[in-house]
Amino acid sequence: MHSCYILLIFAQCLTPNPTPMNRVFVYGTLKQGFSNHGLLRDAVLLSDNSVVTEKHLMLSSSPVPGHGIPFVVPSSDVPDMSDKFSVIYGEQWAVNDEQLARLDILESHPSWYERKKVIVRDLHTQHISDVWLYFMAYDRIPAHGHIYVIPNGTFGDTDDYVSYSKLHNLVAG
Q: Which residues are annotated as catalytic?
């Protein structure tokens, strides 16, 4: 009887204690091949081809695809710009609480970007998931200078971005 008790304790020690995982959707510099992807080095890739099911406004600080800082503005912030909304393409990652905290620091959540839950669909499996996404509130975008609409919702794609001025709405780009 005593040896069974020791065996039970030994078995419990060998059973891994699962770490809670958070699903995060990344659409910009955190994606594979971009400048901040190193923060996901210990994360688990769940899908390399996913899409946010609701359309939003995707912007970039640079006219060059794949450069600058991308922003996804919630559709509720700019309902009068619905003709510029697109689905947002990106990747799904599983991160632990410590990794999520590092992403929050990068994104200056909640003072710059805001992390909110969205529904995404894996385009390979059609599986639907509830994930975190970092949004930029429209009123936090600087009113000076230009930003660029990413019309197809894919940061880094070769489609032309459309020049946008917050003061002048859309301008020729």
A: 107
